[in-house]
Amino acid sequence: MAYKPIKKSAAEAVLDGDIKGWQRILPFLGPAFIAAVAYIDPGNFATNITAGSQYGYLLLWVIAFSNLMAVLIQSLSAKLGIATGKNLPEIARENFSKKTSIFLWIQAELVIIATDLAEFIGAALGLYLLFNIPMLPAALITAIGSFAILELQRRGFRAFEAGISGMVLIVVLAFAFQTFLAQPNWGEVTLGMLTPHFEGVDSLLLATGILGATVMPHAIYLHSSLTQNRVIGRNDNEKRRIFRFEFIDIVIAMIIAGAINMSMLIIAAAVFHTQGLVVEDLDIAYNGLRDALGPMAAVSFGLGLLIAGLASSSVGTLAGDVVMQGFIQRRIPLYLRRAITMIPPLVIIASGVNATYALVLSQVILSFGIAFALIPLVMFTSKKDIMGSLVNHRITTILGWCVVVIVVALNIYLLWETLFA
To answer: Which of 8-12, 258-262, 283-287, 307-311 has the lowest mean pLDDT?
Structure first.
């Protein structure tokens, strides 16, 4: 779903030097916040809580490192859209064969279905925990809520960005409140963030899960679409300046997403690890927070899960529109797409499958699609004939390929351990 060109009076005023100071960034804020929702979807909840409850603050550095990778990857995606006026699937279609484009579209749709499974189940589980609504009715309520969020998109990109940003703010406040109540050991928090180390093979596997689940393929596809026509540079100099502003947007959004993920681990370490409890199910985490910190802590946890699921589900629907339009030049109405992608999670919920297990399974499926988004992204952003003046610097390309190797290798390892160990 590529945004149509908008009235750029504020952005043009910035580019023309008419607006000074911190206000220059305001017209460029938004796209990264939508993409960042993928980094706080319910699929990350179980991994972070398990890591904190089992190893305390040990793996905080993994989240910090993951966030640095996310900044690089999302900046490459945003830069591709700014430089070319096209999104990643469109560029792939132009540079690959028709058969390859169809294959990439099919795998991208499967990845987005897996993503939607995690987000849909997470939101329904949040409703179940908060209001004791059975999972199937909770899923139907989630469906209605996701349609309501998509309605914001019809009101324009600013309304949608504001809505998603507001939901992210609610999640931030929810976990900030829980962190305050948990009273973690901040000395150990700092040590965990700055001291990379492991404690045995199990901690390495859990770190692999955290790192491997950081890069969401649909966020890569979507971010290039969010920037391709939002503010159009009139020349190379303006495109470079637009990217610098968008990079600030990315850094802010990734810091917020990283803080949320860290707070999940910190809370689990302070509440569960100190009691010798290993918590792997989100409903057990909810009840444990209620028993240890009081009902308001549990409510804020359930609310964060619900809001994160709803927001990321809507973003996943937009990503599905982008990959279909980009890879095969076809498009279906967003509401029809939303209705179709609801079917798998509704079937799984109706079958009674454990929600946390379904979340973990969705992350395994996601692992298959990461290479198919990352490798073309680094390839295309390294080509001057595609990127022009915004082509990657040599060091950026080297770092990009290093991230590709790390993420793909870790996901292969995670898949092997999950499926065959």
So the answer is: 8-12
Both tokens of 63, joined, read 């989240």
Q: Which of 415, 358, 269, 386 is nearest to 42 (CA)?
A: 358
Q: What is the pLDDT of residues 7-59, one digit of tens each?
A: 446 767 777 666 776 777 777 778 888 888 888 888 788 889 999 999 999 99
List of residues 6+ apart from 67 with CB closer than 8 A: 214, 254, 255, 257, 258, 261
Q: How many CA atoms lie within 13 A of 31 on its CB side?
A: 35
Nearest CA-CA partner of 386 in 164, 162, 85: 85
CA distance 339 to 147: 9
Q: Which amino acid is at 141?
A: I
Burial-class residue 89 by CB neighbours within 10 Å (0-12, 13-18, 19+). Answer: buried
Q: Give the model confidence (pLDDT) of 156-202 as tens digits.
A: 677 888 888 899 999 999 999 999 999 999 999 999 999 998 887 78
Strand boundaries in 175-277, DSSP class E: none
- Amino acid letter, residue 65: F
Torsion angle, alpha carbons of 294, 298, 301, 303, to 10:
-120
The CA-atom distances, in angstroms, between 55 and each of 6, 100, 390 are 48, 43, 42
